[in-house]
Amino acid sequence: MNHLPTIQISIKEVNKVRIYAIKVNLYSPEIQKKMVQLGAKWNNREDFWELQESALNLKSVFNAFYPMIKDAPELFKRLWGEGIKHKYLTKEIPSSVRQDLDWFSGQLEVEGYARNTLATYQEMVEMYFRYWGHESSEITEESIRKFQYDILVRGRYANSSQRQFATAIKHFIRLVLKKSEEVVSVVSPKKVKKLPKVLNDEEITQLFMSTSNLKHRCILTLLYSAGLRVGELLNLRVMDIDFERGMIHIVSGKGKKDRYIGLAKNCGIILKQYLHMYKPRHELFEGQNGGKYSAGSVRNILRRAAEKAGIKKQITPHMLRHSFATHCLEAGINLRIIQEALGHSRPETTQIYTYVTRDHLSRMTNPFDQLVERQMNKLSNREKGQGNDHLSRGFLDL
Fold first, then answer.
1. Among residues 99, 152, 102, 147, which one has the least CA distance to residue 122?
2. One domain, residues 350 and 210
3. Active-site residue set
């Protein structure tokens, strides 16, 4: 049986410098040559190749060893998907399929799907046709499954992306081929149920304290204090802020639903300062060259603030929304009110925050604590206070 070399990559800190630790399971002169060309150094004590951490080095390693990399970690996800695309999505899309894709996009728009959803569905279906290069009429259950495995599974696409493809191709079959799911069955992976990641009070405070730019602080404050999605923040207009009533009007939020949410008093103070200094005309937050502020800029603001605050967690703008909901729940605010504030259609969506509140976990009496308490009571009764502290600590030290 032939054994091929496999490579595992992780990030380590050597002499206070972050490096890529590259382990190879079998010796190969070709791999050794490539490592030297990349500038990697052999760590004789720990048996791995060292390469300084950088985006350029990461991409170079990936391009050099992509087929051999085993179990790509989080830092390789995007590059892994790109490698799969480059290798497999090489077919030319027939002109007739291009016409079908245009029709597909138009029909989704007629049905009222959001622009971002349209773009995602279009991209997913295009990937399928760039894999096969065949006509729309040649779509089969087998061809869909092979695409799902070769591209989405092997490409380490997120569970949400795999589910988006399944939904997109179902819509394409329904709208373009006029076929029901009974004719062409599409398997959709089970939804992964992840708990929302939240920041604690101290982290939120440090985040704001580390943001000195008024506009940037205003953006982060609104995201947290109103529990906004990034898209909702970027769509806000100056006229959507009602200082007199203390309300924010969210127009066409997710699912094209309007809603109102209260404007926090202290957020209102910062917002007035921002409006006085920057004087935006239409959009509340404008880009440098006019128009809407970008989602990428918001992510960069948050990343820099987290770095200055010394927060090690990987923070996203949506975590501020999760934190708002969780902190509201911990403050005793009714779940129904939180649901309306967040714009959730179903109460089940909001109920997930009950699993990450401190109150939810603190109500549980840990069996280990009960065990220690029973043992200490036994020792106390036996010794009547003589040497009790020593014996109690001894139990915990075991």
1. 102
2. yes
3. 229, 254, 318, 321, 344, 353
